[in-house]
Amino acid sequence: MGTIINGRELAKEILSKIEGRNFPILTIIQFGSDPASSQFVTIKTNKAKSLGIQVELFQSDESDESSALAWTKTSIDTTSGGVIIQLPLPQGWNTESFTQMIPTHRDVDLLNPESYELWKQGRSEMTPPVVFAVQKSLESILGTGIRESPSDKHVAVIGYGQLVGKPVCDWLTRESIPYSLITLETDADERSQILDTADIIISGTGAPHSVTKRDIQNGSILIDCGTAESNGSILGDFDPDCADVCQAMTPVPGGIGPLTVAGLITNLSLL
Question: For residue 218, how many C-alpha atoms fall within 13 Å in the half-sphere facing its CB?
Answer without folding.
Answer: 2
